[in-house]
Hints:
Blueprint: H1 14-32, H2 39-54, E1 64-69, E2 77-82, H3 84-110, H4 115-131, H5 138-156, H6 163-194, H7 199-206, H8 214-231, H9 241-247, H10 250-275, H11 280-303, H12 313-335, H13 341-372, H14 384-387, H15 389-403, H16 409-424, H17 428-453, H18 469-487, H19 489-497
Antiparallel strand pairs: 1-2
Amino acid sequence: xxxxxxxxxxxxxxxxxxxxxxxxxxxxxxxxxxxxxxxxxxxxxxxxxxxxxxxxxxxxxxxxxxxxxxxxxxxxxxxxxxxxxxxxxxxxxxxxxxxxxxxxxxxxxxxxxxxxxxxxxxxxxxxxxxxxxxxxxxxxxxxxxxxxxxxxxxxxxxxxxxxxxxxxxxxxxxxxxxxxxxxxxxxxxxxxxxxxxxxxxxxxxxxxxxxxxxxxxxxxxxxxxxxxxxxxxxxxxxxxxxxxxxxxxxxxxxxxxxxxxxxxxxxxxxxxxxxxxxxxxxxxxxxxxxxxxxxxxxxxxxxxxxxxxxxxxxxxxxxxxxxxxxxxxxxxxxxxxxxxxxxxxxxxxxxxxxxxxxxxxxxxxxxxxxxxxxxxxxxxxxxxxxxxxxxxxxxxxxxxxxxxxxxxxxxxxxxxxxxxxxxxxxxxxxxxxxxxxxxxxxxxxxxxxxxxxxxxxxxxxxxxxxxxxxxxxxxxxxxxxxxxxxxxxxxxxxxxxxxxx
Length: 501
């Protein structure tokens, strides 16, 4: 029997803990602040996320773990590990949450959202998302997944009295709860077959399961993956995405498109590569097929969002994010075939870092356009260069990064890295499907980019209103990150390659 006396490494658990504590401080402060002082809560939240990000710095010097059971097996089984993989994903989550917070400061005021609730829910969800990459047992993993997801349902439906918002929240909630129930069933099957919840021990015991429990273990592996596939918006679990993004407040859609995906992919990587390597023959082909279906469904649906039909820009970004999820799945599938799965996982992390910066940037410009054109149709971007040259150049850069074209060098590098991972793993057919999808995506990204520089019609040339400072800061921060990474793409690849499990 292992020792149950825990010694907690507070430094290791600082990033999610700081975020959670600031969320509670915001909730209590909201009770006492008069209405005119409520904007202070937004500044407090931004400061809290910066502090949580700074708490990653002392962890860079080496791997730390805590909540360990000693003496259970040859090596200690830990529930929380702050290794390089954890730190890279936590940086992505906290950086993404910080950009979302900057985006939200003016949106919360303009849309009259309840400030205390909004900031509390955003920080709570970010705390769960920061806990997830460090989770090294299935119970902590599922709890972190739910802590990240439950506040997100409320955020989507926060525009009270608006039917579309409530409908989006309900659709998101019902489909997510179903996926969670399936995951919990899978986790219970895995536990029944192996007698443990720690990922490293599951990997050890799944290798030689009692033959009578073989079917149970296989069903457990398959069902556990379903929940994480839902969070990544992989086909056929993607149907909630467009309506949820369009119905949610714009900063919340941005948050879901990046942090929601990061949570799903991190969970998927941990359960496949760490816990179920002996079942690679089951999950690797399944994920390869999911990747091909997801990128194709996302890109074909995005292709149908035409500027001339006044389609919503947010809906196009939603379908584009489904397509991007397909690319992110490719290296995880490749890890099941590769001799060096760690290298393949590094490709997913590199792609996720690039995608997070430029996708949040695209949503930030969409939030800027929504201030004067609440419908946020693709046609509303026509003549943006004449009205706001810097915003149009930034949006053009973000779209070219997502398409993988120069000057968005980092987008091109990330796609080549993912492509290489598929080829190295012998998944030639998947590499071909990916190449075709990149060509399809070029069409709608370039079409939107061209719209930015077309002359506006007479009625559209109104004088632009002043841009709130936090929104300008969010666009500038995303643009500077994208440009810096395009200048030195090897930095992000080297950084991601350290994210080895």
